[in-house]
Amino acid sequence: MPNIASAKKRVRSNAKKATVNTLVVASMRTAVKKFEKEANAGNKEAASTNYNVAIQRIDKAMASGKIHKNKAARLKSRLTKMKNAM
Question: Among 16, 37, 75, 82, which residue's beta carbon has the most beta carbons within 10 A?
Answer without folding.
Answer: 75
